[in-house]
Specification:
This protein has about 150 residues and is mainly alpha-helical. Helices cover about 80% and strands about 0% of the residues.
């Protein structure tokens, strides 16, 4: 669905009144549903990418949250046993786990975005410079992929 198509105009013409007619607590779910429908019209790949991005960021956030709850629980369990240095070492190890999870999440999502955005161009440049016959990646940057990737991060 292109922004300049009649389909998009109809989509917006239906969405805007629905958004303002539903109770305020349902406005965000209406926009979420509209977003899913919009990306479903963009094709299966775009829909799967949107879903996978949202799910993986959610799962990484759960993992990071668990490190906080684990840290709190363990520190309470060993409150009287551990001295200040031992508590500091444990906190630092939990912080390292959080940083690793964050880095993996960022590398994964920005890597996917970079592959979609620059993959075909890099293959074309490689073919021109070195006379290779690599075929393109076949990945096309879906509408808004940069936006929702950066928003998720």
């Amino acid at each position: 669905m292109l922004f300049t198509s009649w389909d998009f105009a109809l989509f917006i013409a239906v969405l805007v009144p629905v958004y303002y007619l539903v109770p305020k607590r349902l406005q965000q779910p209406v926009l979420l549903l509209a977003n899913v429908v919009f990306y479903a019209f963009a094709g299966l790949f775009a829909f799967i990418l949107l879903f996978a991005t949202g799910l993986s960021v959610y799962l990484f956030a759960i993992g990071i949250g668990k490190t906080w709850s684990t840290q709190e629980t363990v520190l309470l369990e060993h409150k009287g046993e551990w001295d200040k240095a031992k508590r500091k070492v444990f906190r630092e190890s939990m912080e390292k786990k959080r940083r690793i999870l964050t880095a993996v999440c960022l590398i994964l999502h920005f890597g996917i975005l970079a592959a979609m955005k620059y993959g075909s161009g890099l293959i074309g440049i490689t073919n021109t410079l070195f006379g290779t016959g690599f075929s393109g990646t076949g990945l096309v940057l879906t509408m808004g992929a940069s936006f929702y990737t950066f928003s998720a991060m």
